[in-house]
Structures are given as structure tokens and as C-alpha cells.
Amino acid sequence: MGNITLKKVNKSFGATQVIPGIDLNIEDGEFVVFVGPSGCGKSTLLRLIAGLEDTTSGTIEIDGRDVTGAAPAKRGLAMVFQSYALYPHMSVRNNIAFPLKMAKLDHSAIDKKVTEAARILNLTNYLDRRPGQLSGGQRQRVAIGRAIVREPSAFLFDEPLSNLDAALRGTMRLEISELHHQLQTTMIYVTHDQVEAMTMADKIVVLNAGNIEQVGSPLDLYHRPDNLFVAGFIGSPR
Ligand code: ADP
Ligand code: MG
Fold first, then answer.
1. Residues in domain ABC transporter (predicted)?
2. Which end of the chain is more exposed for a tag (fewer CB within 10 A), N or C?
């Protein structure tokens, strides 16, 4: 499962309305990219879905269940942070195992899940290293591993590649797409980078000042943009 529905979701910080009211449906297994210029509300929208921010009004449903106001841990989602969110003093194994230890799973169950995540992410030979002994790409994979072991109904990524160099970004982009192909789990991926959006998404959500300008496949947006904003944004990769 991994169906996420937003109904009239509104978010204000004090007197500032950041998300005026969004309706959106994300299907199970979709790779959805939220794209738009800096400050348009991508991170806020993702954090609302994750439960890291409370909605001002509106509802969020996950697999038909109303989770509006529910704590992040109750939503069955996993947020993938940038690789610098790893614990530098812990081994790769313990970094990946961390959420399972917090959930008090027994040793053998933890070991099994960590081994499987390491296999999927090609980290089997690096489990005893510290993050500082890994490449940037390997560190990003450890951050993803920490999400995989929780077997979430959806993965949420907020610009996970923005602190990597261009070559590594390209490689990681392919790796995340390949991971989606393997797991077939819903992924929501936030970026301000049109190329990432066009190459990774099943469905792109174009945001502008907290509003959805258009939702569609990369080809839809490219060939049939609804307005000049979408045409300009998608049509002019930086
Ligand atoms: P993006 O991720 O697209 O760059 P954000 O979601 O981070 O945009 O921010 C959208 C808008 O909301 C910005 O104008 C930002 O300043 C504002 N904002 C985000 N978080 C807060 C907060 N905690 N308090 C006040 N304003 C915020
Ligand atoms: Mg952001």
C-alpha cells in the first residue's frame, strides 16, 4: 500500500499562508516528484505528509486512513534525509539498524533486515565502516538503508542529492530510480531541479507559491503545459 490523498490541505505559519489549499492523489507505487522554485512550499508539503508539520486545515489520508494530526511514527512513511544526517560515530550497520533498535525489535530480526537492505543497496562489504570512511554516494545509500528497513508504505525524499557533485548526482538518480523499480513502493521526491523531475518521475507536481500549477507525466508537461509558468519552468533546464 502507499496511496496518499490530500484534501484542501492548507498551511500557514502565523499570518503567512504558505500552502493555500491543495488537493492531490498519489497512487500506490507511483514515483511522484514535487518540483518548483526555491521557497514555493515543496518541503512544507512533504513535511505535512510526513507529519513533521501540522496542517492548518484540510485532511491527509494514507491508504484510506485519516492521519491528519497523527504523529510521524504512526503514518508508516519513511523520510530520507541527506547523507549528512548519519551518525558519524556509529558503524554503517548501526546507522541502518537505528530505527529498528528504537522500535525495540529483537536482534535476529534486526540483523535479517539490515542484511537484506545492505544487499539491495550494495553495502554488504561496508557494514563495519563508519560513515566518514565512505564515499558520498555510499553515505547516501546508508541514509536510504535506514528508511528501507522500516518497510514503509512510502519513501519521502527532500532534495537528497543537493549536497553531492554533478557526476554523483547523476549516478544516485539512477540508483534511486532502480530502487523504485525493485521495491515498487510509492516515492515522493522533492527537487528544484527540472532534469531530476523529468528523468525520475512517473508523475510531476509543479508547485508555484504553494499552488499546484499542473500534475502530469513528464511527457504531458513537456508537450502540453497548462500555462506559461509550467512551460517556462520545465522547458528551461538550468
Ligand atoms: P521549498 O522547499 O520549496 O524551498 P519551503 O517549503 O521550505 O519551500 O518554504 C515555503 C515558504 O514557507 C517559504 O516562504 C518559507 O520561508 C516559509 N516557511 C517554511 N517553514 C517555515 C516556518 N517554520 N516558519 C515560517 N515560515 C516558514
Ligand atoms: Mg525545500
1. 4-234
2. C
Is there a contact between 6 and 50 (Cβ–Cβ < 8 Å)?
no
Protein residues placing their CB within 5 Å of the ion ligand 2:
43
Measured CA to CA, the distance from residue 113 to residue 117 in angstroms comes to 6
Query: Residue 41: CB within 6 Å of ligand 1?
Result: yes
Residues 6+ away with beta carbon under 8 Å from 176:
144, 157, 160, 187, 189, 200
User: What pLDDT was estimated at residue 1?
Assistant: 81
Calculate helix-pair angle for 136-148, 92-102, nearest 10 degrees: 20
Other CB atoms within a 10 A radius of the CB of residue 230 amount to 21
pLDDT for the residue numbered 81: 78
CA of 91 to the centre of ligand 1 (A): 34
Q: Write out pLDDT tens, residues 116-156.
A: 999 999 999 999 999 999 998 899 999 999 999 999 999 99
DSSP secondary structure string for all residues of 159-177: STTTTS-HHHHHHHHHHHH
